[in-house]
Amino acid sequence: MIDSMKLSQLISADDIQTKVCALGEDIGKKFDGKELLVVGILKGSFMFYSDLIRAIDMDIYCDFMGASSYAGMKSSGECQLTLDCRTPLKGKHVLLVEDIVDTGLTMNFLKHHVRQRGPASLSTASLLLKPEALKEECDVDFVGFEIANDFVVGYGLDYQGYYRNLPYIAQVQNMN
Ligand code: IMP
Predict the structure, then answer these.
(1) Quick one: which atom of ligand 1 is closest to the CA of 133?
(2) CB within 8 A of 173, min separation 6: which ones?
(3) Where do the domains of the chain lie, and which CATH numbers do they carry?
(4) I need a labelling partner for 42 at 20 to 30 A (CA). Which of 14, 50, 104, 152 fits?
(5) Helices H, strands E: what count in the chain?
(6) 170 lines ligand 1 (CB under 6 A)
(7) pTM of the complete model
(8) Which helix (H) or strand (E) covers residue 100, if one does?
(9) pLDDT tens, 4-30?
(10) Structure letter (DSSP) for residue 52
(11) Are the beta carbons of 97 and 38 closer than 8 angstroms?
(12) ∠ at Cα 70 (64, 71), nearest 5°?
C-alpha cells in the first residue's frame, strides 16, 4: 500500500465525462461511413478507452496494444511493445487511443509501428497532453486536456500500479 502520496484533484469525473462525449462526437463525425479500428494502448488508456468507444456512435472494431516506457514518475527514454495488436492493419482506418502524451516517445513509437503495416489512415487520441514535456514533435488529432508538466494519476493512470481506479485525475503534490 502506498501512503506517502498527497493527491489533489485536477480534473473532475464530470469534466472528464463531458470531454469524452465531445471527443466521441468529433471522432464519429471524422470517420462517418468508414470502417474504424480503435486501438487502446494498455495499460493506462483502459478507462478512457472504454468510455470513449461508448461515446462513438458508429460501428467500430476494437483491439489493443501494450507499450511501456515509464519507470516510477519518469520516462525511461526507451519504449517497448508489451502487447501487439492481432488485427491486420493493412487498409484499415486506425485510431490509437492513449491516456497521456508526455515526452511523445511512446505515441511516436507506436505510430511508426502501425505505419509499417500499411493502414489506410492513422489518427491519434489522448485524454491528456503535457505540451511542456514533449521531447519530440508529436501531433495528436484528438486531445482531451492540456496539462502542466506534473505527474498525475487516476482514471487509468498509475503510480507503481496504484490509483488507476480513481474516477478523476489527480496531481501528485509531493512525496516523502
Ligand atoms: P511518453 O512516452 O513520455 O509520452 O509517456 C507516455 C506514457 O508514460 C503514458 O502512456 C503513461 O503510461 C506514462 N505517463 C506519462 N506521464 C504520466 C503521468 O503523469 N502519470 C502517469 N503516467 C504517465
Answers:
(1) 3
(2) 5, 6, 7, 8
(3) 16-67+77-150 (3.40.50.2020)
(4) 14
(5) 3, 9
(6) no
(7) 0.94
(8) strand 93-101
(9) 679 999 999 999 999 999 999 999 999
(10) H
(11) yes
(12) 135
Query: What does each of the 176 residues of the chain score in pLDDT, given as a tens digit?
Result: 565 679 999 999 999 999 999 999 999 999 999 999 999 999 999 999 999 999 999 999 999 999 988 666 677 678 889 999 999 999 999 999 999 999 999 999 999 999 999 999 999 999 999 999 999 999 999 999 999 999 999 999 999 999 999 999 999 986 55
Q: What are the φ and ψ backbone dihedral angles of 93, each rounded to 5 degrees?
A: -85, 115
Amino acid at residue number 123: S
Q: Is the CB of 11 under 6 A from ligand 1?
A: no
Query: Can you read off the three cell numbers belonging to residue 148?
Result: 502542466
Q: How far apart are CA 81 and CA 60, in angstroms?
A: 24
Select which of 15, 32, 63, 102 is catalytic.
Answer: 102
Of 149, 157, 169, 173, which is best to mutate to test ligand 1, by the most ligand atoms within 8 angstroms of its C-beta? 157
Q: What does the alpha-carbon distance between residue 73 and residue 57 come to, in Å, rounded to a whole number?
A: 36
